[in-house]
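quick one before i forget lol
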Amino acid sequence: MTDNPPFKVMMDVAGSIKIWAIAASLGGTFSSFAMIEKGIFEGEIKTLVKQAFYILISLTGANVGYEFIRLLQRCGDIWGK
């Protein structure tokens, strides 16, 4: 359909939607920014730390998914030869 191998298309799509995967895992970006603002300006350190932890976990999850697709590509290259 796209005149490209399936793994190349998967890598392109996975790389381009990584930021949206992070936003979806946070449940919407505006609520996260509101909580971060509350933590900074109202001095609620616990809320700020919790949101930073959520962002870190969502970044990790998005990168793990991307690396899993890269692993599939490398295994396909090894086994395909």
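fyi Residues 45-80 form the longest helix (36 residues).
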